[in-house]
User: Fold this.
Amino acid sequence: MYRVRCTWCRRLSRQEHGVISRRTTNVDRDYSDGRRARRRDPRCRLARSIDDETFAAIERAYYDHAVIFFRDQHITPPQQVAFTRRFGEIEFNIFGERWSVPGSPEIVVVSNVTEDGRPIGVRRAGENWHSDMCYASRPPRGTMLYALEIPKLFGLALGDTEFASTAAAWDALPERMRQHLDGRRAVFDFAGRKRAFPPTQAEIDRYPPVTHPIARTHLVTRRKCVYVMRDDCTGIEGMEGREAETLIAALADHIVKPAFVYRHQWRVGDLLMWDNCTVQHRAIQDYDLPQRRLMHRTTMGGTVPL
Ligand SMILES: O=C(O)CCC(=O)C(=O)O
Ligand SMILES: [Fe+2]
Assistant:
């Protein structure tokens, strides 16, 4: 049992974290103030089936913290798919159609590795701040990444992933700005983001622009989150272009202020999952071949943002 104040949820938590530490003792949590709380129990493995009580504790930690991770996992693609399915239906990603794991179409390979001169996965995925598939009418509830290879430079791990709490960003907005945003909808366009592998016109046509509320409410926690991204948002309904651009840029900058950001330094065997409403993320591209990075990614189906 231990006490820790989570700067994201701003609660001094004892009971809940204690329950997590006894039941799912391989759950690690890091906090944006640099403190870390962790309990380990080598018996806890995601590769095994997880009983309902343990799963409920994991899900509670996920809602409380929005980013949780499990160290030292050894899971096969089917086991990752099975764990993802515990959270509901699986969302298929368009890039998985080109880069999935053989036999597991639900898993997208995220990697800079090439074999016989051909990329084995999506390269430079998510290098700018974003929330996954925000251009879809039902963006995925969450995403999981399982680390198989992590680039290193003389022992220093590279290729971190950063997470910014959009809920903490909302809480920190002045009341006047909150009122200005309430009820407004931003336009999200699949073609807005620059990608290392640009989508084809046929793929773009599958995702016509959609609108989502800027002040998005989390379905379960009911927390308000700022749902705006610099590249994917091309406008705000009912607002003139220049004004919308200025507002989108100001909000995108606000969300990623250092106080709201947690940076994950990966270890091989980490399985990390995040909530796509409560956080945005970006992958740090500070490595290159021959340094190899290989991740397996699954996404959980979502609902229409409210
Ligand atoms: O590779 C990473 O660290 C994150 C990539 C990304 O944005 C994603 O998988 O959704
Ligand atoms: Fe992403």
About this structure: The pocket of fe (ii) ion (ligand 2) is lined by residues 126, 130, 132, 281 (CB under 6 Å).
